[in-house]
Design goal:
Number of helices: 1
Distance between the termini: 15 Å
Largest sheet: 9 strands, antiparallel
Radius of gyration: 21 Å
Shape: globular
Strand content: over 45%
Number of domains: 2
Structural class: mainly beta
Order of helices and strands: EEEEHEEEEEEEEEEEE
Helix content: under 10%
């Protein structure tokens, strides 16, 4: 099943919030020492967008005709928090020449990853893969499985570097079951807080 994609609308404004979030259980001892246990292997991301202008009447084509109905209809079609969707972050959606893994001669399936700074984490939902190489040799003998797994027909050799170009999105759900739209002028609406978070 293909997940719907969050619409790109010209009335989106500033600012944009993106919060990588971990969950850590902290137990304090009377001595002041702590025991900490991480509950997430990798961060989950939360996003908050604002829309300064949404057209409801079709008379503001620069805001995309009936963009209010597009965003509201998208929210309604998902049942609020109920169903997942894909969000393509315009600042974080592709990596090129990404080191994926190193073959061991037996494993055929690998989770696709992306590096940010010196940190590597699984991509949330793979949109496309290209330029796959094993030990520097281009190959097309692989299949892609949602959300983020590449499987080779033959296990890459022990020590063989697996590299690929990966386009990805974040698999998300809305944080609330309601959405606040403000009609501030005839035919013009805004939404000051559209919140959603990554899910696995």
């Amino acid at each position: 099943m293909t997940l719907p994609t969050f619409p790109t609308l010209p009335g989106q404004g500033w600012s944009i919030h993106k919060k990588p979030t971990f969950s850590t259980r902290v137990s304090a001892h009377s001595s002041g020492r702590e025991v900490r246990a991480g509950l997430y292997a990798h961060a989950l991301y939360e996003f908050e967008l604002t829309f300064d202008g949404l057209d409801s009447s079709g008379v503001f084509p620069g805001l995309q005709s009936q963009s209010l109905q597009t965003l509201m209809g998208f929210f309604l079609s998902l049942g609020g928090q109920l169903n997942a969707f894909l969000y393509v972050d315009p600042t974080d959606n592709v990596v090129s020449g990404q080191a994926i893994a190193t073959g061991d001669g037996a494993t055929t399936s690998f989770t696709l990853v992306r590096s940010i700074g010196g940190y590597a984490e699984p991509v949330s939902y793979t949109v496309a893969v290209s330029g796959v190489t094993v030990a520097g040799v281009s190959t097309g003998a692989w299949t892609l499985s949602a959300p983020n797994t590449i499987t080779f027909a033959t296990a890459p050799a022990n020590g063989a570097a697996i590299v690929a170009n990966v386009s990805y999105a974040f698999q998300c759900r809305f944080l609330d079951d309601q959405m606040d739209f403000e009609n501030f002028m005839s035919g013009l609406w805004s939404n000051k807080s559209v919140k959603f978070r990554q899910v696995r």
